Amino acid sequence: MQRYFLRPLSLVVCLSLVILTAIILWPAESTVSAASGETAGSLAILGKDGSVKSTCPLRHTQVRGAISGFLARVNVTQTFENTASQKIEAIYTFPLPENAAVDDMTIQIGTRTIRGVIRKREEARAIYEKARQTGHVAALLDQERPNIFTQSVANILPGEQVTVTISYLQTLEYEAGAYQFVFPMLVGPRYIPGQPIGKQAGGWAPDTDKVPDASKITPPVTPKDTRAGHDISIELAIDAGVPLLQLGSSSHDIEVDRTGASSATVKLKNLAEIPNKDFILKYGVAGEQISDAVLSQPDSQTVSRAKAAPGGYFTLILQPPAQLPESDITPKELVFVLDTSGSMMGFPITKAKELIDRALDELYPGDTFNLITFSGDTHILFPEPVYPTAENIRKAREVLNAQHGAGGTEMMKAMRAALVPSDSQDHLRVVCFLTDGYVGNDLEIIGEVQSHPNARVFAYGIGTAVNRFLIESIAKAGRGDSEVVTLNDNVDAAAHRLYQRLRSPVLTDISIDWHDLPVTDVYPAKIPDLFTGKPLVLSGRYTAATSGTITVHGKRAGDDFTPEIPVHFNSGSSDSRILPAFWARRKIDDLMSQDWAGLQSGNVQPAVQKEITQLGLTYSLMTQFTSFVAVEERVITTNGKPQRVEVPVEMPEGVSYEGIFGGTEKEFDGLAGYAQLRSPQKITGANSAAAMQVALTAGPVHGAVAHGVMGGVGGGYGTPGPPPPPAVVMTMPEIAQPSAPPNDKPSTERALLESKLSPAVLALFDCWKNKAKGCKLASDGTVEIQLFLTEDPATALDQLKTAGLRVLQARTKDKVVTGRIPIEKLTALANLDAIKFVAPPRQ
């Protein structure tokens, strides 16, 4: 019996549960009231006469968290202040981590604290609307997507502050001995496909037949060279249980206080940071990497009273085994799909092109590839995947170099173009998708990936504030892996990780034999493959306290791999909601995956909606069908209905205003969600202030949308402009290619070699021909090569030998021959019709 359980992990697990239980009671720090009147960096609100009435109601966001191992408890406190002369209603659309389990909300008015209650979404809205109309201070928290939330605060009196605190649990990503904590800071501007059908909320985009809640997920964006008045601070307490290593942030300047060998406190160096990019913290832990383990927790009394089944909850951490030398030599078909829409203009598309360029160098002999680019239209480089010859690689790089980012983001057409061919194929088609994920129909796209089970999808998010929910979800639906590449990330390392992952997972065909253990409701129900360095986390329930051993079954490099893991399920009861919340969130995710199309269109299967709703109510969790609402009953405000104010968000760092909204400042006016923009001051530094003045009473202007100039977001809807033309799938001859001057055209011999030889083999030939030193040839002037043929090797062997090849191995089924040939005879070999591709031997 093999056991895979390391001592440090058990300590980490115990500390995780203790610390995270304690953080629920961690009091928030006192908030210093912002001074009344306009301040540097504030968003001034104008009345109809143009006079300044108030500043932006959101003053500050404070993030405080406790992290232990792969568990985190985070409190997000938003302070709203009204400096206007009339009461207001503040509306703020903001992100949280895509795997967050939001389980609490409170509001504070003066010394009074009111805890929110979870209700069905429509019931919570009705409670809030009644409170708003009758003058009570109230707060409503809605979930629009698993990573997009809307906070509404009604009847904030002049001169008053209302503080809203949201609490959530999440698991951290772990890879190769290091943990990663990510806090998203803003909702990036999304492209909205479809025809307009009205507007139910205050976003800059109308609702459409494709995205019926578009106006809820498109918060106003600050105009170019200006900033919003609110800022953010972050403080994290880390207790790893084992010594901490290499603690740092690739996104922000931080201050680290080492409180012990295994603990530290981390703060943003700038306590008033502009929220325009994701905060990313990574830290390593000493010793061997974590191994297989099971955490268990008895049923909480709160959940038991809600008539849940007896027993408890568990989380299984399954660590991938060491990767063995790959024995699978089956060639892969790789399709790179690149988002070239306006939101990718500048840094994002440059980074994405670098990643693909580097990945082309990593292709194995025998692999074929293709390149699809998309914005409003979809362009396919080759009619079908081709071998990575020098000519084909050159063509791909020419197309890559010509991309600059423009147009809308018609992602669905590109996704179908990449995935549909896999439906009728008996070999593996691997799709590598590179995008910022700025689309409103993300649920529909995830469902599309799920409907093509023969493909494997790897997703790379490119940017500083990408739609991580979409990136993670399409990778899960496509049985692949995901990664986010930011401005400061090393492209070579990211491309190599992609190469390692897409070649083959470490452990496939995973199933678990629970033997006689009383286990039920394990999620995800379909266990994904395991990739290098990334553990798999499963959540389930047990109906009785017991001990035993489970057996994991899987394939590693084609061979059976069956580790056994000891299990102990605790007894008793617990007031902690940590593991129950994780389990409920996992089950909700599984239910959502059963009807992505219905979730996108707003017509969810009744049974799915009912079960998600009940889970939200039972476990006090935010879902798309349950919301938190809190009402201050003692204080009743007067003077009619409050004035509604939409809180604007920053443009993500590195994203181009021109690519998103077009090229003129006038176009930015309406997209900020307001009608007037009066002389905004330019920002000269990362944290410089700019006073941006906007009208309070006028509605948003969508002229830029109507005329289809909004690059990465617009063009898919709006009136009176026409809808965008349908996407056109183009083959290689239809794509504009830079033509070489006549004198630069390759000779007939050169063109032949480029059309058959890989870049590596061609480089050896050039080295020999130029009589350069250090050419990597055998002492007899031969080179070992691998030939991919159009016919059975037995039929072509005589021709190959005549051309000078000394055959070392022939694989009839794969039509592949390995041999040695004098370097000077490569041209004669390439002349043979039976030769499709000449590559170095597979290492």
Based on CA atoms alone, the radius of gyration comes out at 29 Å
Distance between the termini: 34 Å
* Overall outline: globular
Average predicted confidence as pLDDT: 82
Count the beta strands. Answer: 42
Outline the low-pLDDT stretches. 1-48, 50-54, 664-743
Q: How is the largest sheet built, in terms of strand order?
A: 7-6-11-4-3-16-19-18
Q: Helix amount, in percent?
A: 10-25%
Derived from helix and strand composition plus strand pairing, the structural class reads: alpha+beta
Total helical segments: 19
- Estimated share of beta-strand residues: 25-35%
Major sheet details: 8 strands, mixed
What does this structure look like?
It is a single chain. This protein has 843 residues and is α+β, with helices and mostly antiparallel strands. Helices cover 23% and strands 32% of the residues. The strands form nine sheets. An eight-stranded mixed beta sheet has the order 7-6-11-4-3-16-19-18. The chain starts with 6 loop residues before the first helix and ends with a strand.
Quick structural overview:
With 843 residues, this protein is of the alpha+beta class.
Based on the model shown, name its key terms.
19 helices, 7-stranded mixed sheet
In terms of topology, how is this protein built?
Blueprint: H1 7-23, E1 43-46, E2 52-55, E3 58-68, E4 71-81, E5 88-95, E6 101-109, E7 112-115, E8 117-120, H2 121-134, E9 136-145, E10 148-156, E11 161-171, E12 173-175, E13 178-183, E14 196-198, E15 207-208, E16 231-239, E17 244-249, E18 254-260, E19 263-268, E20 279-285, E21 293-298, H3 301-305, E22 312-318, E23 333-339, H4 347-361, E24 368-374, E25 378-380, H5 390-402, H6 411-419, E26 429-435, H7 442-450, E27 455-462, H8 468-477, E28 482-485, H9 491-503, E29 508-513, E30 519-523, E31 536-542, E32 547-556, E33 559-561, E34 564-568, H10 578-592, H11 596-601, H12 606-618, E35 626-636, E36 643-646, H13 657-661, H14 665-671, E37 692-695, H15 703-706, E38 729-730, H16 748-756, H17 759-769, E39 782-789, H18 793-802, E40 806-811, E41 816-822, H19 826-830, E42 835-839
Parallel strand pairs: 1-37, 3-16, 5-36, 23-24, 23-26, 25-38, 26-27, 27-28
Antiparallel strand pairs: 1-2, 3-4, 4-11, 5-10, 6-7, 6-11, 8-35, 9-10, 9-35, 12-13, 13-20, 14-15, 16-19, 17-20, 18-19, 21-22, 22-31, 24-25, 29-32, 30-31, 32-33, 32-34, 39-41, 39-42, 40-41
